[in-house]
Amino acid sequence: MYDIVFISYQEPNADDNWKALKTRFPMTKRVHGVKGIHQAHIAAAKKCFTKMFWIVDGDAVIMDDFNFDYEVPNNQQDHVHVWRSKNPVNDLVYGYGGIKLFPRRMTINMDTSKPDMTTSITDKFKPMPQLANITAFNTGPFETWKSAFRECCKLSSKIIDRQKNEETEDRLRIWQTVGADRPFGEYAIQGAIRGTKYGEKYAQSPDDLRKINDFKWLQEQFDDTNI
Question: Are 161 and 115 contacting, i.e. CB atoms less than 8 angstroms apart?
Answer without folding.
Answer: no
